[in-house]
Hints:
The structure is a single chain. This protein starts with a strand and ends with a strand. It is mostly beta strands. Among the domains are: about 140 residues, Immunoglobulin-like (Sandwich); about 60 residues, Arc Repressor Mutant, subunit A. It contains five helices and 20 strands.
Amino acid sequence: MIWVLMLLANGTALMLFNATVAVPVFNVTLPAEPMWGPVVELDGVPVPALFDGRSISVVTGGEGLVTIRYVPKLVTINEMPAVNITTRDVVLIWANGSLLVIPSLKVLNFTRVDSSLLILAKGPGYVAYAAPRTPGPPQPQTTAATTTAAVMATTGTGRPTEATTSITIPAAATTTSPAQSNPTDSSPVGSPSTKSTAAVTTQPAPAPSPSADQSNSSGEFVPVAVAAVAAAGAALVLLSGRRRQQKDLPEVDVKILEYVKKRGGAYEADIAKDLNIPRTTVFRAVRRLEAQGLLRLEKREGRNWVKPTE
């Protein structure tokens, strides 16, 4: 069982679990304390679940794709936000953008995918991180600026050590206007900062560009992060009006759709019996296909009759 801890470039965190199970009732312990109640889905449909504060029980009816996501409660480690992993589960840490990740868990492996860092680790332990600095206006200086970045590292024994790196940047001559004489410098807590100087001339201000947080917001929940875990990928569905191509549908939906089209219509009970699919799975799949305009549901003698729309 593998959980995905998504650390987004804007400093927020999300815990995700996505896997196909084949048990009537699925029980799982949350690897970290949630900030509020998790969202539970079965085959892409929100379902009720029993939640006692640390564990979740989901009734699947025999099998199904279980998705659990929630925002973990953050704590502060060395003035940086951190997630406390309290279980011995394997956690895939996906750090988006230029985040600085400082895990105290046992790191099993790590790799880089595009602009993200994937770390496979095992709890218990903390995962502290620092959000990237948002660039601000240039700040004039007449003396050398010294920046000290405190970096927490972990040794082979898992005990944290502290290393200090000092970087000295020579000052440059500047020309500034009164409106630019006192720029404001703000940065997220725990992120390393550097100050430099640059010549400033009076020119028309360029059009504002999207911030680092805005540029990354469209990719916070890309399926690449979820696909990094075996059997943990959630498919995006492309809609075109009220119709979809069969290649975008889940496999069970395709089977049911082809069966109903071939027979020209069938009762839900017969679909489950002939295709050897649980009744609860057929029930949910038929409602999804009906919502997409591919099937039509009507009552016949108190039973659910399913027929194609074409």
